[in-house]
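Hi, here's the filled form for the chain we discussed.

Project: internal
Contact: R.S.
Residues: 270
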Amino acid sequence: MNIGPYIKSITTIVVLLLAVSCLGTSSCSGTSSSTSANGATPTYGYEVVNTFTHARDSFTQGLEYHDGKLYESAGGDGTSSLRLVELESGRVLDKVDVPMPYFAEGITLFNGKIYQLTWQHGVGFIYDANGFSKIGQFRYEGEGWGLTNDGQSLILSDGTNRIRFLDPGSFKVTKTISVLDGNKPIDSLNELEYFDGQIYSNLWHRDVIAVINPQTGKVNAWIDLKGLLKPGEVRDEEAVLNGIAYDAANKRLFVTGKLWPKLFEIRIKQ
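And the returned structure, exactly as it came back:
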């Protein structure tokens, strides 16, 4: 009896069963996780470490923490200001009003000076960080939304998917990156923070932070911040997530939003 055909049939069946098994699991060669298999950008969660009081009248456009001090830029027509805030209580310790018609936007602290953008007038203000007094101003093209720095350049967002790097002496643009998630442009980049070699950006009207490669503009990760506030804690439709500050000395990350009653210290969960 010739058993060759039977052995060949059994071998074929075994191979088919193994192939089906591989399709149903991630343990076969060539696949690891859904993220690496389909090229999707990873999304991280968060853990709330501390909750602090935040001024409900602050339409937060910029947030900065340095040497134990919390600085905040509050926007609004006729209500814009730069504030020095006590973290633990949310109490405003000092304030400089921004005159009409300027609508205050992002801030950053660089070499002992606070730089503050305005929305649509192409004018920024410079303050002495210690005396909390206005000492100058500068100009830039287009709108101003978020502002941070990497120790060498001022880094500016304008509500599009582009981020510009400005020389802090001349305020000329030295580099521009386009922010992409894969091939998709990521618009509405808002408040910015730079730490650990990456740019962290709020997105207008979205409960996420984009983690951006400052060299290429690639979105390296998303941080999903849904659920920070309970339903009903804010009612204004513009009371959205906006405000990122990093305490480099103690490695603490703070986030808040426009007109939010709370400011949170969070830990990113990868």
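Let me know if anything looks off before we file it.
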